[in-house]
Amino acid sequence: MSFDSPEWLLLIALYGLLGWQFPNLKLWRPMRLICGAMVILSLMDPRLRLKKEGVDLFVLADRSESARDWSESRLDEWEAILESSKGEGDRLRFIDFAAEARLRSQKEAGDVLDERERSRVGLALRQVLLSRSEERPTKALLLSDGYSTDDALALEGPLLEGGVVVDYRLAPHSSRLDLRVSDIRMPMRVRANESFLVDAKVEGNFDGEVMYQVFRDGNLLASGKEQIKGGSLDLRFADRISRASATAYTVSISAEGDEIAGNNMKTKWVQVEGGQRVMLLSNFREDPLGQALRAAGFDVEILNTFSNLNVGSLSGISVLILNNIPANRLPSEFMKAVDFFVRNQGGGLMMVGGRYSFGSGGYYGSAIQDLIPVSMELKEEHKKLAVAMSIVVDRSGSMSAGVPGMAGMTKMDLANAGAAQATALLGELDAISYLAVDTNPHLMVPLTEVGPNRESIIMRIRRVASMGGGIYVYEGLKAGWEQLQRSQHGQRHLVLFSDSRDTEEPGEYEKLIEEMVANKTTISVIAMGDPGDVHADLLRDIAERGKGRIFFNSNPEDLPALFSQETVAVARSAFIEDPIATVPTAGWLEVAQQQLNWLNLVEGYNLSYLQQGATMALASNDEYKAPLVAYWQKGIGRAAAVTFPLAGDKAVVSLAWPEYGDFCQTLTRWLAGDRQVEGVSYESRIEGDRLSLDLYYGDQWEERFNRNGPQVWLSEGDDVLEAVWERIEPGRYRLSRDLRVNSPIRAAIQLGDRAIPMGPFFVGTDEEWQREAQKIRDIRLLSKKTGGKELANLTDVWEHPPSFQFVSLRNWALLALFVAFVLDVAITRTGGTRVLWRKPER
């Protein structure tokens, strides 16, 4: 027994002194002596040392791609050995880890991790620390190849503090022949037109001839053959980028005899910094808007092809302009990135009118919709023509597949949701039919006027299920056309939804589509898959012959939005073709110091409505009083809408307008804003899959940051979140964050109404396949420091030094005090003391 506070033993002297000085207290009575002893004992907090029985063992099973071949076939056997060899009082728990770590029971299936392109040993050990019981000894058994993609050694302190012992068994060193791109060394940031060196290091366990290719943003930059000697080869080349942007460099190798292909490619990004730049995405080869901005001194990049656009395309630009570009021609990844560019990075966005812009261009329901200061959906009372729409949907076997991240939902459910949303957007006088196609068409909803039947149509659509087989596209188109032939509506349109990897039996579709187009019927295609899929060209040809649009989409979650975009583009949008007079407003004075000499009329415009909170500078002088020029602040960025054409056959009057150039450059300059931030800089670096970001600032920011610190926003995939800084010292903040695989992350440091845009930062799948010997050494060192070891025999894991715990007896002392006190009161009240102390008679 020991005492936590033995100094309270001095109270015995005080107790004796009180009894001697105040005899009337009668402290020498038995019960009062016991009470005094229990008070002193409870203050001393006596503790009894007891041996702990049993140990909690956490088995950390590496389920990543690089360890899969070694571990998957052995785990069941290992778990059975550990279960049968554990002693009385021992407890066994399992943690599967890769990019994430998940605690499971032995009865659960182990194959539940979605992302396997990481080996986060450190994350698994953190899970042990969170799940362990402080009352019991804890051990961790690591079953892995040892090539951790995070810093496991950083857990040394918490593991020692928690008394967690780490044993391990590692996969035997691979004897397979392997060459890999181990690193690409180059600066993370350079200036425009600045030369820099790209140094790719190739390593391996055999020598031979290596073929290499170097790509810049997907375009081949260099290729050739080199001889690797002594297991190492450096590929060096210089490059220079003329414009501010974010550029991805990819190095790929191949060699005869190389048995591991997962590490043969590596990608890194460089951010090219420069002056303010305007990116103009245009439907016109010689866009007069771009020429006017260049004449005003802007650095303008005009693009007429858009398939290579990605999140990095927005780096280094201050304003993005969309001139009469339909939404289906822009990559979905790029469209989603625009929102963060405007709201968080302080960029500017302008959409210019035309037949393929705003609602007519399919932007309703897109990621850009909420950024534009005008609404894109036509009001019911403004529709001129009713529409008959036939939706033909693939219900083959592939449509029964589940959707990751959406429990219980299948691709078919999302296609139904899209068709239901299209029905909800149609007008009262519009009509719709719905056909589900496998090897035969199945009429689920015959052509029905929406009006009073809207809810019943939606209910019937949502009940359609996938029934297997493939999609016979000719039969689907034919059945949809038969429904539309029953209609007398002013517009007839067919939407075909099909899998671009599984579209069969096209038959004589050319002749069928020719007949449909001749009868004023258009066809659009929503393709599940990618533009490079085996049947993508067939679906693209159907849309082209049908005078419609085609959407390629590999994310089922986007299906409802695509159906909405297509429905609004056909049924609920309008491009007014007639010349319309204009009415200026005072709103322009918020952009410029003086009013423009506005043009008197426009030759056409996209009918839309001013969003709440937006400002209108020019309106149409017709029954709609619609905005022709509108703008607003969005986040810390700005967006504008010019709903009349600034190029093309409907812009003759606009191009002859003397103020054309002044208008374009003034609005663009307002959108660009002032992005200069003095006295602040940042430094970024990536180690493994972890991003570290340091912000440095001068004394002029100290007082302001003491009141309101800088905000840092991160955009990764579809997620946008505010990260938390750590203040390292005066003048310096730091942020550290793990990066997802193959998911570029962009960042913005917000300082009031201005921002410092950064990124994208990127980690590829190659990190999982890197065979760095230092990672193995870190695992061995961590185990040794915690008292663990490498196990040849798994049953040895149950061996552990005796562990003891101290159990406090204070509560028992307090209970005895209570009992003694009650007895003393009872004896005093009943006079029992006289009986107890009375001398016996002779």
Number of helices: 20
Please tell me how large the radius of gyration is: 37 Å
Question: What do the pLDDT scores average to?
Answer: 85
The percent range for helix content is 25-40%
The strand order across the widest sheet is 17-16-18-19-38-37-36-32-33
Biggest sheet character: 9 strands, mixed
- Which outline best applies? globular
Structural class based on helices, strands and sheet pairing: alpha/beta
Give start-end ranges of low-pLDDT stretches.
none
- What share of the residues does DSSP label as strand, in percent? 25-35%
Topology, number of strands: 47
Distance between the termini: 47 Å
Concise summary:
This protein is 26% helix and 33% strand.
Structure commentary:
This protein has 842 residues and is an alpha/beta fold. Helices cover 26% and strands 33% of the residues. It contains 20 helices and 47 strands. It has a nine-stranded mixed β-sheet. The chain has a six-stranded mixed β-sheet with strand order 25-24-21-27-29-30, sandwiched between helices. The protein has a five-stranded mixed β-sheet with strand order 5-4-3-6-7. A hairpin with a 2-residue loop joins β22 and β23 (406-410). α2 runs antiparallel to α19, α9 packs antiparallel against α10 (454-462) and α9 runs parallel beside α14.
Topology:
Layout: E1 2-3, H1 11-21, H2 30-44, E2 46-51, E3 56-62, H3 65-71, H4 75-85, E4 91-97, E5 101-104, H5 121-131, E6 138-144, H6 156-162, E7 164-170, E8 179-185, E9 189-191, E10 196-204, E11 208-216, E12 219-228, E13 232-239, E14 245-254, E15 265-273, E16 277-282, H7 288-295, E17 299-303, E18 319-323, H8 332-343, E19 348-352, E20 374-375, E21 387-394, E22 402-403, E23 406-410, H9 411-425, E24 431-437, E25 441-449, H10 454-462, E26 471-472, H11 473-484, E27 491-499, E28 503-504, H12 509-518, E29 521-528, H13 536-545, E30 550-553, H14 559-571, E31 575-576, E32 580-584, E33 601-602, E34 605-606, E35 609-610, E36 615-620, E37 627-634, E38 637-642, H15 652-656, H16 660-672, E39 680-687, E40 690-697, H17 702-707, E41 711-716, E42 719-723, E43 726-729, E44 732-738, E45 745-751, E46 754-761, H18 773-785, E47 804-808, H19 810-830, H20 832-837
Parallel strand pairs: 3-4, 3-6, 6-7, 9-15, 16-17, 16-18, 18-19, 19-38, 21-24, 21-27, 26-28, 27-29, 29-30
Antiparallel strand pairs: 1-2, 2-47, 4-5, 8-10, 10-13, 11-12, 11-14, 14-15, 20-35, 22-23, 24-25, 31-34, 32-33, 32-36, 36-37, 37-38, 39-40, 40-44, 41-42, 41-45, 43-44, 45-46
